[in-house]
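Quick one, tokens below. Sequence please?
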């Protein structure tokens, strides 16, 4: 059952927020959906799933990215889930890069995190099924995200290439097994077995992707991003893409940092990119 929390008209369409009990994360989850003008049971629209980064909720993207005008024009619905399970019963840590607000879009295997931290199953299976049941959308999907959410979008698309028509990311964590954010999250959520970690690493997954499973991928990265060198490492992803001819386009953007100012500067291009593939 979905509980409607808000409904706001914007750009001729509707921004709505919902909460529901999740069977994947065993707690109440929140998500936001933008429905473009004219979306109805007789005019279903495709969906872009947006995965946000560390510390975000369902609100950051919808309020700060400036995406809704273009999405309205192109006739694309956008679904923005929360970034982790939340609540008093959900184990947490007093840090911005682990626990609530930092679910890393994986299924945790380690106690005490493995009961609730199942964001991979939530995003891949539960949420699309719920959205397709309750809203006027088709089964055509694209996926995008920022930073930790860029990591999530790329991992999910690489592991489920037939489920998404295209994938994009802003400032993604491309190689979490080789950066401090990834090391911390993966060791606590997944334990010491580094074979498990590779299942959630875009570079490792891309290395093992056959050309039948290639899907269009666009990445934008600001060169003034303070996390670029230690955490994000886009050069590791482009090196793999080059080796196997994966259809990745990386746009290095001069002067931009890690913030939503950067995302809002290029979100229209990402929406047009996804639109061109959702249509075909
Ligand atoms: N030190 C920062 C790191 C977190 C951060 O930069 N989060 C990015 C994603 S990795 C973000 O989108 N923050 C929320 C916002 O800008 O609205 C903080 O604690 O705010």
């Amino acid at each position: 059952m979905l509980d409607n929390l808000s409904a706001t008209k914007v750009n001729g369409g509707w921004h709505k927020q919902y909460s529901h009990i999740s069977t994947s994360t065993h707690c109440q989850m929140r998500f936001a959906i933008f429905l473009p003008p004219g979306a109805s049971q007789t005019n279903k629209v495709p969906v872009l799933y947006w995965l946000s980064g560390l510390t975000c909720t369902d609100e950051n993207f919808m309020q700060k990215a400036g995406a809704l005008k273009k999405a309205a024009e192109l006739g694309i619905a956008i679904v923005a889930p929360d970034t982790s399970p939340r609540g008093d019963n959900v184990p947490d840590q007093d840090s911005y890069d682990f626990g609530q607000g930092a679910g890393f879009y994986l299924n945790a295997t380690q106690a005490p995190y493995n009961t609730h931290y199942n964001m991979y199953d939530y995003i891949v299976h539960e949420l699309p099924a719920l959205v397709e049941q309750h809203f006027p959308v088709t089964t055509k999907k694209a996926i995008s995200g920022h930073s930790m959410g860029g990591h999530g979008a790329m991992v999910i698309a690489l592991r489920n290439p037939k489920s998404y028509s295209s994938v994009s990311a802003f400032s993604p964590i491309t190689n979490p097994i080789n950066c401090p954010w990834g090391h911390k999250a993966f060791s606590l959520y997944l334990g010491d077995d580094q074979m498990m970690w590779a299942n959630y690493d875009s570079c490792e997954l891309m290395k093992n992707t056959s050309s039948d499973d290639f899907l269009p991928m666009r990445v934008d990265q600001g060169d003034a991003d303070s996390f670029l060198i230690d955490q994000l490492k886009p050069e590791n992803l482009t090196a793999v893409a080059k080796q196997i001819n994966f259809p990745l386009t990386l746009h290095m953007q001069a002067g931009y940092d890690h913030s939503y100012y950067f995302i809002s500067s290029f979100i229209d291009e990402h929406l047009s990119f996804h639109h061109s593939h959702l249509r075909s």
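The first helix runs from residue 59 to 64. Residues 53-56, 60, 64, 96, 146-148, 258-260 surround glutathione (CB under 6 Å).
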